[in-house]
Amino acid sequence: xxxxLNKNIIMTAIGSLVILLGLELGxxxxxxxxxxxxxxxxxxxxxxxxxxxxxFRKKYQINLPWFVIxxxxxxxxxxxxxxxxxxxVELDWWDDFTHVIGTMAVTIAIFVSLYYxxxxxxxxxxxxxxxxxxxxxxxxxxxxxxxxxYWGDLMFATNRIGARFDTASDxxxxxxxxxxxxxxxxxxxxxxx
Length: 193
What we know:
Order of helices and strands: HHHHHHH
Distance between the termini: 20 Å
């Protein structure tokens, strides 16, 4: 894939997240507290991607592969669609689905970042440690996300947790998403070698 095409694909994903942010803040689809909380997810996801991308561009003169930003974009859009269309309330499986997809996106970004850091010898991770660290960091971030949902419910009555077992269920689906990514990534790496 040419650099120009790769850049256009990446900029399209970034542009769609910016448009989504406008929709999240401009449309009336929920309480303002929930709309702010949901738009923060979009902003943080995009900001972290841009920081990581800038680091690798500046330090190693490489761009993250296009699929990193697109996995993030798809995950954020699916979350937004679930909120716009009230799928989280109407479809029992939507929350589980978006937790799998969201953690897959996070794990892809983490795995690729660790892979490059390993490749450029900034860290030293073996074949077993790379996927293990990717899952561990993904689950740490998923746990932190669940805590922020709880804090939002306590401070702003966002009602994002819902049922009593929501957090345990969410973490279970997060783990599945993370494991799926490292299994596929390991298969791809083995094939390339």
